Amino acid sequence: MKTGILAAAALLALPLFAQDPVKDFVQGQKLLERRKYQAAAETFDKVAGAAKGTLKNKALLQKAIAMGRNRKVKKEDALAAAAAVPDAKLKAYATMSVLANREQWKRIVADFGAEKIQDWDEDYAYMGWKLRGQAYCYCRQYDKAIADLQLAEKNAGSDRWTLIETEGALFNACCQKKDYENALKYTDRIRAMKDYKGSYLYLDPVLSSVDAYIPLKKYEEARKTLAELDSITNLSKRNNKDLYSCRYYISLGKVCQAEGKTEEAKAAFTRAAGYNVQRSFVEQAKQLLSRMK
Question: Residue range 142-167: average pLDDT?
Fold first, then answer.
């Protein structure tokens, strides 16, 4: 994931003695983006041993992040790496990142609910708001979630990966509050990010938007969305086509059911139930079908 913590200009502005560590840092970032977590952690560790000051702090931060994403690394070891970051604000960010990757949402809220993220450097404060906003959402504190996520959205700048993640999280938080009109504003923004079509970051919230159209009785908009997603999933090679097809037919069935088209709804749920994909979606299709009998 691109965190946007270090812009290229900032790297080039470092003292000359750090040129080799800088190159290694850039290599570590590339490894992290390619999900080569162990190699990335080793590279950042090397940078931290050779660098000083800001670069050392940020190398230790990225080492902790890489360890947190690596499921072969114990949570305690990743948290120990985060605790080794000298700068207090970067240490907080590193710890939140590790906890988020291990889905320790309650602990993020407990340990960092009072964290003054507004005092962090702007290069990574938006990431702190995003992580805490996601944690609040998982803990069903939706107003706090939306407040933090809106700050993340406002300050994400050119980090489009984080921005689209944040828009999706805002959609989910608003849906949980049954504020469907505002929820759909966020999926409209995601749909405007055409370069992410085919990515799960695009597909998941836009597909879920069908569930927001239904209580608003905007069935035509729901069908247009499904038609758009049908063409995207057929073209996408980066995702599990069968999984999205299953979810597509579940959503189509819900729209048909809301429109009173019982037989069409049954046909859609039956088709969804026939996919060999994640059990929760197949079971959902079967339950929806059984309720119609």
Answer: 95
